[in-house]
Amino acid sequence: MVEELDPVDVVTVGVGWTGGIIAKELAQADYEVVGLERGGDVETEDFLTAHDELGYALRYKLMQDLSRETITFRHEPEDTALPMRRYGAFLPGTGVGGAGVHWNGVTWRFLPYDFEIESRTIGEYGEEAIPEEMHLQDWGISYEELEPYFDEFERMAGISGAAGNIDGEIQDEGNPYEGPRSRDYPLPPMMETPALEVFREGAEAAGYEPFMQPSANLSEPYENTDGVQLGACEYCGYCERFGCEWGAKSSPIITVLPVAEETGNFELRTHSNVTQLLYDEDEREVTGVRYVDTQTNTVYHQPADVVALTAYVLNNVRLLLLSEIDEPYDPETGEGVVGKNYCYQNFGGQATGFFDDEEWNLYMGAGALGVAFDDINGDNFDHEELNFLHGGSVSLSQTGERPIANNPVSEDTPSWGSEFKEESLEYNHSSLSISCQGAVLPYQDNYLDLDPNYTDDYGQPLLRMTFDWHDQDYALSAYAADVCEEVMQEMGADTVEASDGLEGSFDITPYQSTHNTGGAIMGTDPDESVVNNYLQAWQAHNLFIPGASAFPHNSGYNPTGTVGALAYRAAEGIEDYLESPALLAEPET
């Protein structure tokens, strides 16, 4: 039996950054909001002195249980996909706050070029610059339109950084290539350590323009725009895969969610696994959601005037496919939209330097503590003679060298034994690595759909991922590897080992980044996108789908800053829709 509940104004499916922002904004506007989260609750006190590297970093305490639900993976559409049985390339989280609890905190704005990538590329290099099988498209919104939402997210989260461009005026500090911002970051940059100074000097010597990267690890105590008091980072080195014990890494559990709960209009329901969006195709609306209380196995129907699909990228796409909302993407014809334009992140370009006479305290650090340069990101450099588009940000990050996982040795050193131990001790505080975080652009044969062979605990098909690198990715990473090697040489390393870029097919086993994007992309044409620029579904006008699933491609940055901006944009759209139900952005013809 399905137990039907009383209707509410808004239900969010997932309670991370996107679900938390929407809950706060709508609850403050006096709407009744229910947040459904399939994991449990967490709070800052849970992480006090919890520097458990084995439990959190290596046994994935805050991550989804792959024994109950996972994805299947293959390289090519003709291959048979197999289940991902253990964590590797990316780490979908679970629990209240989602990835916003265990993230590092690096918080970029995508470049103006990103939002108009197709039209700007054609305007600069001609249509022939875009390979036929590359599904490049504009986002349906400009950087200038999204800038106020970026600013709103940064001031709520207390982002630390230095502006490089205020209203078109290039500043002495910060990123000179960033889009114009209306004002500076709310907090100054984090501390620049001796290791970061070495990178800055090397990058400048090589002719690049480095700056402290923007960070949600707060450089100072801060009272945000909702009156929430946040702490200052202690540089303990336990950010990535951990919750912050000091309330000094901005996250939904210390910002938007407490504010939503204080209104009395928000109800959080944990251990609530949504299995279906209830869709009326004739009326082009969702009437609510069906979910399972995983502690009692009771099945509920929660009616709502608006549903916000605010789960992780992969879960957003899977629920759309399971609920038969809009047309699934077909890689053979290129038609259909749900599952289209799945992208990842390119970390092929890297260099490690070993310093015989230098030593730094690399145990100290923070998730977003780093210096970066953007000279080879986006279209900040001439691609006329290159065989790839876009680029990436190059950085050295001092995240904290935790004792189990960090044992830097040269390539020809055995992976165990006395020589390994001797060299890992010698270089534990005397080696530095820099990398390029490269864009990944969409291709016709990279996509998401439902697997015909494997199911989850409830008998529903698992999500199937089909993805591999293309010539674009190999060329970008090889170029970036040369840049990283050049900078490391200028840094004065005695031995430099640079990657040759990506090798072979995409390997899903080693961790790379939890920067999955696409599958429910935004745009101006319902035949080419799932949502409009308010993140409102074309085929279900009371369904909003913010998050990185809306990205038509992935940039050379971490996605969270842009995710946050889109969430504020979607919250505004939901409020407009509740006041006057309608399609908020008409398709272009």
TrEMBL record:
Glucose-methanol-choline oxidoreductase N-terminal domain residues are 192-342
Would the keyword Kinase be found if you checked this record's keyword annotation? Answer: no
Family that this chain belongs to: Belongs to the GMC oxidoreductase family.
- Disordered: region residues: 164-187
The answer to keyword Flavoprotein applying to this record is yes
To which species is this protein native? Halostagnicola larsenii XH-48
Q: What is this protein called?
A: GMC family oxidoreductase
The alphabetized UniProt keywords are: FAD, Flavoprotein, Oxidoreductase
Q: Name one Pfam family in it.
A: GMC_oxred_N
* Domain Glucose-methanol-choline oxidoreductase C-terminal intervals: 442-567
Write out the GO MF terms. Answer: flavin adenine dinucleotide binding; oxidoreductase activity, acting on CH-OH group of donors
